[in-house]
Amino acid sequence: MAVYTHLSVDEVNELLAAYDIGAVHAFKGVAEGVENSNYVVEAARGRFILTIYEKRVAAEDLPFFMAVMERLAARGFPAPRPLARRDGSVIAHVRGKPAALVSFLPGASIAHPNIAQCRAIGAGLARMHKALNDMPATRANALGPDAWRRLLSPRFAEAEALRPGLADLVRADLEAITAWPRDLPRGIIHADLFPDNAHFIGDDLVGVFDFYFACTDFLAYDLAVSLNAWCFDGPVYNVQKGAAMIAGYQEGRTLTEDELASLPLLARGAALRFFATRLVDWIETPADALVTRKDPLEYADKLAFHRGARGASDYGA
Question: Is 0.90 topped by the overall pTM?
Answer without folding.
Answer: yes
